[in-house]
Amino acid sequence: YLQVNADALDRKVQLEGISSHEPNGSLIRPPVLIGPNCHIAEESQIGPHTVIGPNCIIKNGVAIENSVFWAGVTVGAGSKIRNSIIAQNSTIGEGKNINEESVI
């Protein structure tokens, strides 16, 4: 699942969606796909190979890499998420580390 999303971001397969971010000091490392109505707070690092579904909230200082978020995910300040899948409407608390190949 993670590899298919990475392949789509690398344009090995066709993927339709909206790619955007807020230019507020966050670091966005392509390829990244961010859905509509997302809020990416200051000092966050997103990507590479990351898909963030619609209506997600990423708070200050979050780092996300090689991961897929479904719709409505909220991530608390200072959390680190890598090589993981976060299901719809999940909430990750502040300062949490989500390890390799986790599914929440």
Question: Quick recap of the structure?
Answer:
Helix content is 8%, strand content 29%. The protein has 104 residues and is mainly β.
Could you characterize the architecture of this molecule?
This protein has one helix spanning 2-9; strands at residues 27-28, 32-34, 39-40, 45-46, 50-52, 57-58, 63-65, 68-69, 74-75, 80-82, 85-86, 91-92, 97-98. It is mainly β and 104 residues long. The chain has one domain: 3 Solenoid (UDP N-Acetylglucosamine Acyltransferase, domain 1). The protein has a 5-stranded parallel sheet, with no helix packed on it. It has a 4-stranded parallel sheet with strand order 2-5-8-11, covered by helices on one side. Residues 17-21 have low confidence and may be disordered. Pfam families: GMPPB_C (PF25087). Residues 29-104 form the Mannose-1-phosphate guanyltransferase C-terminal domain. InterPro entries: GMPPB_C, Mannose-1P_guanyltransferase, Trimer_LpxA-like_sf.
